[in-house]
TrEMBL record:
Superkingdom as given in the UniProt entry: Eukaryota
Transmembrane segments: 30-49, 70-94, 100-125, 146-168
The name this protein goes by in its record: Lysosomal-associated transmembrane protein 4B
Subcellular location(s) of the protein: Cell membrane; Cell projection; Endomembrane system; Endosome, Multivesicular body lumen
Keyword Transmembrane helix: yes
GO biological process, one term: endosome organization
Purpose of the protein: Required for optimal lysosomal function. Blocks EGF-stimulated EGFR intraluminal sorting and degradation. Conversely by binding with the phosphatidylinositol 4,5-bisphosphate, regulates its PIP5K1C interaction, inhibits HGS ubiquitination and relieves LAPTM4B inhibition of EGFR degradation. Recruits SLC3A2 and SLC7A5 (the Leu transporter) to the lysosome, promoting entry of leucine and other essential amino acid (EAA) into the lysosome, stimulating activation of proton-transporting vacuolar (V)-ATPase protein pump (V-ATPase) and hence mTORC1 activation.
UniProt cross-references to Pfam families, sorted A to Z: Mtp
GO molecular function: ceramide binding; kinase binding; phosphatidylinositol bisphosphate binding; ubiquitin protein ligase binding
Coarse class of the protein's main subcellular location: membrane
Keyword annotations from UniProtKB, A to Z: Cell membrane, Cell projection, Endosome, Lysosome, Membrane, Transmembrane, Transmembrane helix, Transport, Ubl conjugation
The keyword Membrane belongs to this UniProt entry's keyword annotation: yes
Length: 226
């Protein structure tokens, strides 16, 4: 018979490049942390020097203002929140605190849902892509080349691109979820499972309970020779 732990039976503890899910979650959290830190620095520099990132209405092809003070403050607040969430996930995976990983996992689910809605929108309203491209500024790179592509082929290319992104995001979600389950299982009681050859599972009590119960048993009576 083979003795295994219950947290290693129903999911994988390895991810990309054959590294552990805990290592993969730490690397993923650091990567997101770096990206959001760079975005925060760009937003702060734009807030300090608005003329450097000022675009006129003619350049944007519309009558709206690009990144006003209200939108800038909202973007900075979102960046700070993302930095906090990524730092919590990295710390939780490093120190093996499963609860600290939940906010980052919820963000991944929310991001996956938004990308899925974009894919559904492209599939249901294919003409919206052409309308969006027409609203781009006249000097937008490759705008004329994109407009000359067949609309059906353009929709298929965009759907294929979004599908690849969704598959990659789903893989990252599974990596973080497996890391959460791994840490949660390691922090739970160390109950071992005996798996016999006929698929019969026998739970063993914790070692402390077994030793305490064994110690409370009365010793056998002394042996008396006849």
């Amino acid at each position: 018979m083979k003795m295994v732990a219950p947290w290693t039976r129903f999911y994988s503890n390895s991810c990309c490049l054959c590294c552990h899910v805990r290592t993969g979650t730490i690397l993923l959290g650091v990567w997101y942390l770096i990206i959001n830190a760079v975005v925060l620095l760009i937003l702060l520099s734009a807030l300090a020097d608005p003329d450097q990132y000022h675009f006129s209405s003619s350049e944007l092809g519309g009558d709206f203002e690009f990144m006003d003070d209200a939108n800038m403050c909202i973007a900075i607040a979102i960046s700070l929140l993302m930095i906090l969430i990524c730092a919590m996930a990295t710390y939780g995976a490093y120190k093996q605190h499963a609860a600290w990983i939940i906010p980052f996992f919820c963000y991944q689910i929310f991001d996956f849902a938004l990308n899925t809605l974009v894919a559904v929108t492209v599939l249901v309203y294919p003409n919206s892509i052409q309308e969006y491209i027409r609203q781009l500024p006249p000097d937008f790179p490759y705008k004329d080349d994109i407009m000359s592509v067949n609309p059906t082929c353009l929709v298929l290319i965009i759907l294929l691109f979004i599908s690849i992104i969704l598959a990659f995001k789903g893989y990252l979600i599974s990596c973080v979820w497996n890391c959460y389950r791994y840490i949660n299982g390691r922090n739970s009681s160390d109950v071992l499972v005996y798996v016999t050859s006929n698929d019969t599972t026998v739970l063993l009590p914790p070692y402390d309970d077994a030793t305490v119960n064994g110690a409370t048993k009365e010793p056998p009576p002394p042996y008396v020779s006849a």
